[in-house]
Amino acid sequence: xNKLAIMGAMQEEIEPLxxxxxxIKVTEYAxxxxxxxxxxxxxxxxxxxxxxxxxxxxxxxxxxxxxGCDTLLFSGVAGAVNSELKIGDLIIxxxxxxxxxxxxxxxxxxxxxxxxxVFVETSKELREVAKEVASENSLKVIEGTIATGDQFxxxxxxxxxxxxxxxADALEMEGASVAVVCDSLNIPFFILRAISDSADMxxxxxxxxxxxxxxxxxxxYLIQIVKKLNK
Length: 231
Ligand code: ADE
Hints:
Rossmann fold; 29% strand; 6 helices
């Protein structure tokens, strides 16, 4: 690993990451800010993409192609689909899918377009390191499927569709697009989320209340993972 990319979607998701660094070099590019820092000799680029799959794809691609990052970690919040996941709980994605990608009219499965796959897997090596860090720090972390779409999900109907169609454990709005970019460009990547809401009728209230605290839970764990990776 020569240069590490760390992404979030929202400013609130990268703020608790940036707090760990001094001497931050800010570069503006493609209507976004990129924060270059270093940790014990490791060069790191941090950015929030803005919400959704298009912005997340742009930022992931920029971090890889313009800044030369060769490993990518994502930190942020998600809505729970698996009823065992409660607010503040951590989930690492073993695979991700796009729940709103739909050409079923032509007989294809949900989440599939020709040339792609329904599910994209994350790096097993990075997951193993994350699990080691979790057990050393007695953190409870679930490994599971994350479904991504350009929708803030706040209904049991949509949530049940995502559960039944993809057997997803959590949902959010960026992960699978970052996964497609990294997989296509051969960049090992890892998607971490802490639960902010349950994607039900209360979701928008819970999200507002727990965005900051859950983002911090995710960021604190991610920083521990980065330190372990850099050992
Ligand atoms: N991220 C956090 N909660 C979410 C929700 N309910 N829908 C989509 N993305 C989210």
